[in-house]
Specification:
Mean pLDDT: 80
Distance between the termini: 138 Å
CATH class of the largest domain: Alpha Beta
Number of domains: 3
Number of strands: 16
Helix content: 40-55%
Low-confidence stretches: 18-30, 136-160, 458-464
Radius of gyration: 39 Å
Largest sheet: 6 strands, parallel
Shape: elongated
Strand order of the largest sheet: 8-5-3-2-1-11
Structural class: alpha/beta
CATH architecture of the largest domain: Alpha-Beta Complex
CATH topology of the largest domain: 2-enoyl-CoA Hydratase, Chain A, domain 1
Number of helices: 15
Length: 464
């Protein structure tokens, strides 16, 4: 019996060895795919989040062994930052965030992304930190600068205002968030709290010493060599990186993300919104012109789409609309400048407070606000005002201006003859006899024949 089972055991050992070899080859193949490099350069917004999410999805589908995010950012929007972090922490492909080149920074939102990555790296001469939520604004400190030591001090300490309490809530939420990210990969949670609470910042060498980052490298090739063999935790499982000598594929923004990047620029969104409003108003004042309404409608839709992706203060939108309405009202009903000045003030204030964040790169440039304020004044008060006033004036050209004008008879006639009006000679008919040189009032026009009526001899008309 034993001799019969011995060949069977040998076959099983051979099969098991083959399976282990196949698994080892599969793991090696999975770790030997090219590195996909993404680039974050500038403020982090909706387009950046879309680009990173698409890049990580592309790496998963194409079998890349590593995603490398080369980053240089002053910060950005909280919602976009959190979208990027979710994509990184849920990625089955390890993500390395590399602050480069020399002189780059990972400030504000960039600090959170660096903490969330499986490997955090920096180039020499770069810095990280200043992660306090800047939308809290300036002025007082987010948290009390000191803590009362005794009962007397506690009695004297004023209660936190609603504004201070709200600030403390936001700061504490940010601290908890970055501490949770620090715990994922064993990074320095105490300094992370300091970066949020005190806006602390570190150069690359100090960040490595304090275990804020994992490695310093002067370039991408050196970085891949230095993290080769490093163990990282990806979706709760340990994984060893094999990155030395791997080829690098650069993932560029596609046309959709580039267009989104343009549309989510607050300056572009602001301009599109105002062009849309101008176009529709011009179409309303001049129905049938088609072009202003078509262009205005397209720009307005694009502007509204952009606005819904950005942190908008709806009070600012309301003030802009009110300002435009007041300037139009000034054009219709001149009020010695009261409506016009009020409209300009409302328009400027609404434009300034339109974007509800102080994140770098997401404010509306003051020069653009001033330019469009001047354009609005010219369009709505002067140009449209002059057009409205000209419509109310009597007609001074064409056949219509002949009605009620004064003509002079060229000869005696009874019934039909010739008259002179505005230096022109016309055929005319009259129900009463007319004498040469007599002044006549034009009462109607029938084709090219004027209907005239004799004026009283006491009338002092204007000689045509």
């Amino acid at each position: 019996m034993y001799y019969r089972l011995q060949p069977w055991f040998a076959r099983q050992r051979l099969l098991l060895s083959g399976l282990l070899l196949l698994a080892a080859c599969t793991v090696h193949a999975a770790n030997s795919g090219p590195v996909l490099q993404l680039t974050i350069d500038g403020p982090i917004g909706p387009a950046t989040a879309d680009y990173v999410e698409r890049g990580i999805d592309h790496a998963i589908k194409q079998g890349n062994s590593l995603v490398l995010i080369r980053m240089d950012t002053p910060g950005g929007l909280d919602t976009s930052m959190r979208s990027i972090i979710k994509a990184i922490t849920n990625s089955p492909v390890p993500v390395v965030t590399y602050v480069a080149p020399t002189g780059a920074r990972a400030a504000s939102a960039g600090t959170y992304i660096l903490y969330a990555s499986h490997v955090a790296a920096m180039a020499p001469g770069t810095n990280v930190g200043a992660a306090t939520p800047i939308q809290l604004g300036g002025g007082e400190s987010p948290l009390p600068s000191s803590t009362p030591d005794d009962k007397t001090d506690k009695d004297k300490a004023p209660a936190l205002s609603n504004k201070s309490a709200e600030r403390e809530k936001v700061v504490n939420d940010a601290i908890a968030y970055i501490k949770g990210l620090a715990a994922l990969h064993g990074r320095n949670a105490q300094w992370a709290e300091k970066a949020v609470r005190e806006a602390a910042s570190l150069p690359a060498e100090e960040a490595l010493r304090l275990k804020v980052i994992d490695v310093i490298a002067p370039g991408v090739t050196e970085l891949l060599q230095r993290i080769d063999g490093r163990a990282v935790t990806v979706q709760g499982r340990k994984q060893t990186l094999h990155t030395a000598g791997l080829p690098i594929q650069v993932y560029e923004m596609d046309w959709r993300t580039r267009m989104l990047n343009v549309l989510t620029n607050p300056n572009i969104a602001y301009i599109l919104l105002l062009i849309g409003v101008y176009g529709l108003l011009l179409e309303f004042f001049n129905p049938g012109s088609v072009a202003p309404g078509t262009i205005g409608g397209i720009c307005l839709i694009l502007g509204l789409y952009s606005m819904q992706l950005l942190p908008i203060n709806y009070a600012g939108v309301a003030l802009i609309i009110l300002g435009v309405a007041l300037m139009v009202a000034e054009a219709y009903q001149p009020s010695f400048g009261v409506l016009g000045i009020g409209g300009v003030i409302a328009f400027v204030i609404g434009s300034v407070v339109l974007i509800d964040t102080e994140a770098p790169g997401f404010g509306i440039d003051l020069s653009i606000i001033i330019t469009f304020t001047v354009i609005s004044v010219l369009v709505f008060i002067f140009i449209i005002g002059m057009a409205i006033r000209s419509r109310r004036k009597p007609v001074v050209s064409g056949i219509e201006q002949l009605r009620d004008a004064v003509a002079v008879a060229m000869n005696d006639f009874d019934g039909k003859g010739r008259v002179k009006v505005h230096s022109e000679i016309w055929q005319a008919v009259s129900e009463t006899p007319v004498h040469a040189g007599q002044q006549l009032k034009i009462t109607g026009i029938d084709g090219l024949v004027l209907k005239v009526q004799a004026l009283p001899t006491t009338h002092k008309g204007t000689t045509p």
